[in-house]
Amino acid sequence: MDLSVYWAEFLSIAILHFMAVASPGPDFAVVTRYSIRFGRQTGLWVSLGIGVGILVHIAYSLLGVALFIHRFDWVYVSVLAIGAVYLGWLGWQAIRARPRSDADLPTSLKSNDAQTPVSKEVSNTRAFGIGFLTNGLNVKATLFFLMLFSTIIAPATPTLVKLGYGVYMAIATAVWFSLLTLAMTWGPFYRQLWRYSHWVDRAMGLALLLISVHLISEVIARI
Predict the structure, then answer these.
(1) Is 75 or 162 the better-scoring residue by pLDDT?
(2) Residues 52/204, Cβ–Cβ less than 8 Å
(3) 96 by DSSP, 3-state: which?
(4) 14: Cβ–Cβ under 8 A, 6 or more apart, which residues?
(5) Which of 48, 65, 75, 169 has the largest CB neighbor count within 10 A?
(6) How far apart are CA 145 and CA 199, in angstroms?
(7) Euclidean distance between CA atoms 121 and 30, whole angstroms
């Protein structure tokens, strides 16, 4: 198999994927909220969950399920409704954030970086699950991957190569949000941000609620 013939296709995918992942959306809001509220470790686990969530979209795109979801309106509406409720729940949790005092500051922040969670109420497993579900239930991501696999990626491209594209996008997504987490939990910046962190929580919560309302309006319009 001469992989060199697929470089142009891969470059197009990489550019489109970067534009999509760098655009503010549910993933960005969730990573920002959990990184600032619970610290670097939690943010990294959420980022990893988001990256692995990409593989869900890749799997059903390879199997043709994405086309099935798009063609049958009731399936699309069901996925849309589940995603809307989940994002609304996350947004409601975030928008209720209360002001924090310096006493709540992570011990690690008093020296260098926010390497430990602020609170034990979010385990690594739960943080991973939040990231995974946020991306896995994102119906807009479904449409994005449907577009990739139906217009950018040629039908003749071998399944193994398509799988390679998917693994790349999963890794690139996890790396992007991990870098975002590292930037936001950099000690000097985080110490200044901490006193306003509840407002960041509320802003990200509002963003998630607005996305949820938008998705619900789409559901109602299709019923």
Answers:
(1) 162
(2) no
(3) coil
(4) 168, 172
(5) 169
(6) 33
(7) 16
Q: Considering Cα of 215, then 216, then 217, then 223, what sign does the dihedral take?
A: positive
DSSP-derived 3-state class of residue 157: coil
Question: What's the CA gap between 127 and 42, in Å, rounded?
Answer: 6
How long a stretch of residues is the chain?
223
Where are the chain's structural domains? 26-95+112-222
Asked whether 114 and 41 are in contact (CB, 8 A), the reply is: no
In tens, the pLDDT along 195-220 reads 666 777 788 778 778 878 887 888 88
Summarize pLDDT for 80-127 with one digit per residue, the tens.
788 788 778 878 877 877 776 555 555 545 554 444 444 456 789 999
Amino acid occupying residue 34: Y
The pTM (predicted TM-score) of the whole model is 0.75
